[in-house]
Every structure is written in structure tokens, then in C-alpha cells.
């Protein structure tokens, strides 16, 4: 049993007003169902908030996702959930973090940096190829985020690490 607004965030779907990182992260790892509303008059003394009962059923096995990268991606996307992904990924601190992680990846694999390297162009190119540059996090579902994370990893080797995000 949770406070109603928290429970609504857990079960929120893309496009809902309460859809947020909590929603997408919970739904990545579990099947979430709202079972019932519990009115405050069912308690003595009555609390100031309404409650709801939610069922969380963990997915078994959990999805094969690097959770550090997943969390980094959702942090960037939901930083301003009403901004487009293109705008979210153009923020200087985000570009700097992605560039740092990309250069680290190249150095660990003894690969040279391309002479005309431009991280912002690389990221926007991926978003455009996926036709996601104008999408907003509030309207993206689990599959959209999975597709984006896979594209960053496979096409650009951009590793999103939440520990290096200082937004």
C-alpha cells in the first residue's frame, strides 16, 4: 500500500501526466498493477492522504540491460521530460559526459579517435536515424528506451554512465 500519487507514478503509462523515471524503471523490472484504492476514512485516525494497493511482480529473469547505462539514459531523457531528446542531448554537460565516456571506451580498446570527431553530431545523428530527435521522454515507452540504449551501444559505443553525470 502506497500513497495514491506514488502508486499512480508506479503504474503511469507514456503520455500520462505522472509518467516519470520511477514509472519506466519500475516497469523495466516488474509488472505493476493497481489493485484498489483505499480511502483515508478506512483508518483511525484518518491520514491526510489517500492510498492505493499496488501489485509489483518482478520480471524473472530480469531484462538483459546494463542498469548503470539504463539509469544514465533515463536521467538524461527525464531531466526535462517535456524537452525533446534532441534538446536534452545537446546540453553541454551531457555532451561532455558522453564524450568523456566515448574516449575512455576507445582508449580501453586501443582504438583511435576519428580526426573529425564531434560528439554532438554523432549523438544527434543516432537520434535522427532512429527518428527520435523530436520525441519527448514523457511519450516514450519501454521499447523506445531499449531501442535508444541499444543504438548508443552498438552504433556509437557511447557508454552512458550515471556516475559521471553532474546535471
From TrEMBL:
Residues that coordinate or bind S-adenosyl-L-methionine: 1
Assembly and binders: Part of the small subunit (SSU) processome, composed of more than 70 proteins and the RNA chaperone small nucleolar RNA (snoRNA) U3.
Signal peptide residues on this chain, from the entry's feature table: none
Name of the protein: rRNA adenine N(6)-methyltransferase
GO cellular component terms given for this protein: nucleolus
GO MF, any single term: rRNA (adenine-N6,N6-)-dimethyltransferase activity
Domain of life: Eukaryota
Role noted for this protein: Specifically dimethylates two adjacent adenosines in the loop of a conserved hairpin near the 3'-end of 18S rRNA in the 40S particle. Involved in the pre-rRNA processing steps leading to small-subunit rRNA production independently of its RNA-modifying catalytic activity. Part of the small subunit (SSU) processome, first precursor of the small eukaryotic ribosomal subunit.
Entry EC number(s): 2.1.1.-
Record-annotated Ribosomal RNA adenine methylase transferase N-terminal domain positions: 1-60
Family label: Belongs to the class I-like SAM-binding methyltransferase superfamily. rRNA adenine N(6)-methyltransferase family.
Keywords, alphabetical: Methyltransferase, RNA-binding, rRNA processing, S-adenosyl-L-methionine, Transferase
